[in-house]
């Protein structure tokens, strides 16, 4: 068995929506597996116990929490997406920032010709940059 390091994202009833959004944005996104709560847990039935999504050879784990917590996502941890074209940067940033919060608008910065930083509608933080 090989040791791995995989980001895990916890949602409150929105994991399926997040997976749908991310698979619509990233061309090579692949849902590897999905395990849902069954009738033995009626309050959570149908929600995601754990799912694995692979995007650009990076696995991400998703779960719906049965409990509401006093914490959520923070922009101090973010996904950094390096894109091959300005058009790709613009497309991905527009999709991720829709109904979210833009923290650094798409622009030229000293470290990148085209860069933007946002929280998506779920609060997950994304930095999108021209490679």
TrEMBL record:
Protein's UniProt name: VOC family protein
Originating species: Lujinxingia vulgaris
Residues covered by the PhnB-like domain: 5-128
Any Pfam family the entry gives: 3-dmu-9_3-mt
InterPro entries found in the cross-reference section: 3_dmu_93_MTrfase, Glyas_Bleomycin-R_OHBP_Dase, PhnB-like
């Amino acid at each position: 068995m090989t040791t791995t390091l995989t980001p895990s994202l916890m949602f409150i009833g929105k994991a399926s929506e997040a997976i749908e959004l991310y698979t619509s944005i990233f061309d090579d996104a692949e849902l590897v597996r999905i395990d849902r709560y069954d009738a033995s847990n009626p309050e959570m039935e149908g929600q995601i116990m754990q799912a694995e999504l692979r995007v650009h050879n990076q696995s991400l784990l998703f779960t719906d929490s049965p409990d509401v917590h006093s914490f959520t996502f923070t922009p101090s941890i973010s996904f950094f997406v390096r894109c091959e074209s300005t058009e790709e940067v613009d497309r991905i940033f527009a999709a991720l920032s829709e109904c979210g919060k833009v923290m650094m608008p798409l622009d030229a910065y000293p470290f990148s010709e085209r860069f933007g930083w946002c929280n998506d509608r779920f609060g997950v933080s994304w930095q999108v940059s021209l490679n």
